[in-house]
Amino acid sequence: MSTQKNQAQSFHEDFKVGKAFDRGLMRRLLRYALPHKHLIILALLLLFTVTLGSLVGPFIIQRALDGPLKDSILGSSPDTAGAFREILVLLSVFLGVSLLLLVLRFAQSLVMAHIGQRVVFDLRQQIYTHLLRMPLSFYDRNPVGRLVTRITSDIEALNELFASGIVGFLADVLILTAITATLVWVNPTLALVTLSALPILILSTFIFRNKARKYYRQQRGHLSHLNSFTQEAIQGMEIVQSFHREASHQEEHRTINKSYLVAFLQSVMAYAVFFPIIEILSTVVLAAVIWQGGSQLVEGTLTFGQFYLFWHFLGRFFQPIRDMADRYNILQSAMAAAERVFNVLDTPESLTDPEEPCPGRKLQGRIDFDNVWFAYKDEEFVLKDVSFSVEPGQTVAIVGATGSGKTTIVNLLSRFYDPQRGSILVDGTDVRQYLKRDLRARIGSVLQDVFLFSRSIRDNLVLNSTDISEEHLLDCARRANADDFISRLPGAYDEILSERGGTLSVGEKQLLVFARALVQDPDILVLDEATAYIDSTTEALIQDAIGKLLEGRTSIVIAHRLSTIKKADRILVLHKGELREQGTHEELLAVKGIYHRLHELQYLDSAAAQDSIG
Amino acid sequence: MNSIRFILPFAKPYRRRYLAGILMAPLSIGSLLAIPWLTGKCVDLLRESMSRPEGVNSLPPLDALKILLLLIVCFACIRGITLFAIRWFIISASRKVEFDLRDRLFSHLQGLDQGFYNRWKTGDILARCTQDVERVRILAGPIIMYSANTACMLVIAIPLMLSISIKLTLLLLIPLSLLTLSVRKIGPRVHSAVFKAQETLSDLSSLSQEDFAGIRVIKSFAQEEAEAERFRKLSGQYVDDNLEAARIQAWMQPLVGGVNELSLMLLLLLGGWYLLDAGSDLTLGQFIQFAGYQFQLIWPMISIGWVVNQFHRASASVVRVKAILESESNINPPAEPSRPEADELKGAISIRNLDFSYNGKKVLSNVSIEVPAGHTVAIIGRTGSGKSTLIKTLPRMLPVADGKISIDGIDINQLPIGLLRKAIGFVPQESFLFSRTIRDNIGFGLDEPSEDGILSAARISGLEKDLDQFPRGYDELVGERGVTLSGGQKQRAALARALLVRPSILLLDDSLSAVDTQTEKEILAELRSATDLITTVVVAQRISSILHADRIYVIDEGEVAEQGTHKELLEKDGLYAETYRLQLLSDELEDM
Hints:
The complex is a heterodimer of chains A (614) and B (592). Chain A has helices at residues 2-12, 23-33, 37-53, 56-66, 70-73, 80-133, 136-141, 144-186, 188-195, 198-235, 237-242, 246-299, 304-316, 318-346, 406-413, 436-442, 457-462, 470-479, 483-488, 506-520, 536-550, 562-567, 585-591, 594-613; strands at 367-375, 381-390, 395-399, 421-426, 429-430, 443-446, 524-528, 554-558, 570-575, 578-583. Chain A is of the alpha/beta class and 614 residues long. Chain A folds into 3 domains: 21-185 and 337-348, ABC transporter transmembrane region fold (Up-down Bundle), CATH 1.20.1560.10; 188-301; 367-583, P-loop containing nucleotide triphosphate hydrolases (Rossmann fold, 3-Layer(aba) Sandwich), CATH 3.40.50. In chain A, strand 4 (421-426) and strand 5 (429-430) form a beta hairpin. In chain A, helix 1 packs across helix 10 (198-235) and helix 10 runs antiparallel to helix 12 (246-299). The model of chain A is unreliable at 1-16 and 603-614 (pLDDT under 50). Chain B has 592 residues and is α/β, with parallel strands linked by helices. Chain B has 2 domains: 9-165 and 282-325, ABC transporter transmembrane region fold (Up-down Bundle); 344-591, P-loop containing nucleotide triphosphate hydrolases (Rossmann fold, 3-Layer(aba) Sandwich). In chain B, strand 7 (505-509), helix 17 and strand 8 (535-540) form a beta-alpha-beta unit. The longest helix of chain B has 50 residues, at 61-110. Chain B starts with a helix and ends with a helix. Classes of the chains: A alpha/beta (614), B alpha/beta (592). Chains A and B meet through helix 1, helix 4, helix 6, helix 8 and helix 10 of A and helix 2, helix 3, helix 5, helix 7 and helix 8 of B.
């Protein structure tokens, strides 16, 4: 299936290889590390000490072999007691260094972890705050999953860079240099023999790492494909079973599972080949060192202690080289992550607050739309030259079909978008003159698409406010007819809702958001009324709650119920982005336009029924 | 041991690989340990040649050295080859075991009924199919490999060391066993600390997920700063968790280094004493050999602790995986299926006195509905009245007692499940689409859907007119990686998917609720002409979608409250008539 191939490819996109090093990006990243420079300096100092300290042990042994033990090795031991005392002195030095190292190594691990965590904490907070400030249009373009990745995996990649990448890289360079310098200093010829293997070692390590990383990326790609396939199969099992597609689904699953297996077998092979090669290589070098060193020993230009040093360091050569290859990969992923993260941070906040904002205060509630034109995209205007006013305390009902621009009016009033032409005034001041925060805190909205947080009911009602009294909360819940069902929940107001309020019925969710709006007590209320319910009990509760919600405040209602419309002080009839009629119920009936026709239909259709109810 | 009993049947097909891998282990460890021994011999040889006057040697030392060095290289090659073989045989076998296990799990999952999926969370099932399978895989691979290696190492190295010096060996084993013990102690603590940090990370990502999804509400109530503060707290918690894990983990590296150094010290202390003591016959070569063994024993000693920890985790995972494999389906194929004439169902449905309970709560009681083949029946009722349950019993997505529902006179429990379900086109309430192309989604029900079929299904379901919104037309991917379809578009795609299989029975479970009324009207008109011969059962909230049904059933609290045609029900002036009046206006508004 071609889709599958497409999909596998798109899964790989998350694992794209970027540039391993970009100076601009790096400089910008380091700026985040700057506030923690004391920690970084401490880490470097620790690193330096630990590296040098770890060389002490082998040197002690070398000293012992070439000093007190020298004579007994060659057959004669003149002063056993004196020699043993010398060994004890060496040992106590070793013990002291070793204990110190124990503490320093511990400190080093901790300091490095701290650096990573501190640096990314700031960065993570910055991105989050920035994302929350982005306008709705940004969220229209970017799927939620992608944004969450910025906060989680991208930040984790940067954490790794700061925690082990940068400092670790320096540590590896340092230890390699120290070992090489030691070897050259002790015996240049033998050092040359040992180091001759280095190019092959480095080369094969990098070849292996590249391969391993390629397979790793493939595995990750196949794994996320496998996981999302399985997840979808579980979520869509009803569909799979009802269409009796189990067999073909099993086949598809097997194909993906197989590619995952194959990618793994390839990397198992790479590992299985690589480790033996390293072992063989280092043993061959060992043989060469013994051969070369042996003749030097016999000639007397090399001591047994020095010989031991070479033998010891040969075993410690490989680790830093392998680590360096890993760090290179960390660097690579961190650069890619940094690029994505900075892309988000560089996206400007398009709806900026004014420099000298109108002070936030309680609003009278007057609203004016003056010749407003608005398009979400290019020149496709969804509002065309719309003008109307709402007096403080009035309720205005907006009537119109889907796509007539009703929701847009609400979006513009709360300044989720700015109009292309015209202006929107609240209490006679352009909405662009208010701080968005102040404006929105005074305008409450109840949307048809109810959104509840998976937190307690209380948290959902008070949101993050801390100054809401328990009485006010209960009173609002009661007025919104929500107290009844809330009290019946096992945890009452502390009941934690499942994701998006899944455990509640549609009607209960509506009542809950009404209560939320009442608790917040806005000066202006925007209500997107949901369509009528078949459940007449809930319907009555909702109608009642809506009445209380609109009481005593300026309200704009996107109306679906005749009862709501009739109660409105004024009705706006929107059609294809234009305000076609406005006025009271009676005025509009007199105009004999769209509203009249609408009402007529409604009236005629239900006349018979109304009669029979009486 | 239960976990081993569980894994054995999965490992059995690959027993040759396992056997080969395990048999290689002694060879591999033997040659690995031969190298320090040979190195020691070289050193002793060199030392002897230095202490003796030149020319007395029977064999020139350099020739003997050559032989020893050749042996070292030979053993290194044997070690290399066997090391490769062990890893390749055992680890690749474990990957194959993982493949088989995952395949089994998936196939088992596909056989489980909806009851299972209602009880289990998707995330939980998924975790068992991924993380737990991976942990079981560790049991089938690395645990075996490291156990074999460590066992051989101990069995071969310890006697070798003992043969050189009993005291030195015993003394060295003390710090080394300390290593095993501390890995056992620290490992689980690291694991639980890391686990806690991961939990916080997942809270962090849920919080951002929810905040981004509910960004409108956040902005409406000007909650950006408060939410950022909430995030800051959680993020701080995450930092603390990570640092806590780091604090425990930070012991590991100094510990390994410390044990290594301590062993070196002990070696120098006792070895030095022996070397100095003329009475003992420890040679420098043996000293070096010992130092080599000490170095090589470090990792196996760590791995004992590791293996035990991993084994515990794997055993816990085996239990979790088994829980799925041992779940049974309530819906099973009939022992002796009855087949309809010509293997085709016409679609006459008869439901008689159907009761249904869910979690001990009665959802449907005494429901009887007759649908002659080719008729359209509508079911209407408030949310939670049992409509969806009723419709899901027809394709046996939910279990029903024998004799309650029959199609063409045959009890559905006696029909072959495949035949029954293929005869039914089901459009569920939540129109679930797969993240594939629109074409693949519509064609989901058939092996090789024809282009014409897809086009006509898309036309009838009214999806065609939205097609120009998708840059790649029918080849557009659905979901986060492609276009996000609106609720109405999803529903229409789901309808097209059901129409494509040319079912005898079409089940629509409130499946046009997100389509605007005008489009709904057009779709319904198209459907009426296209599905004239198809038996249709429609569940709806909106009365406008069912006006034309041959018969309407109003379900209330699990029972049939009213039934009749639209006209009859209006005359009755009950629940139906009342609802109709309420809904009229909003429908008219939408129609403007």
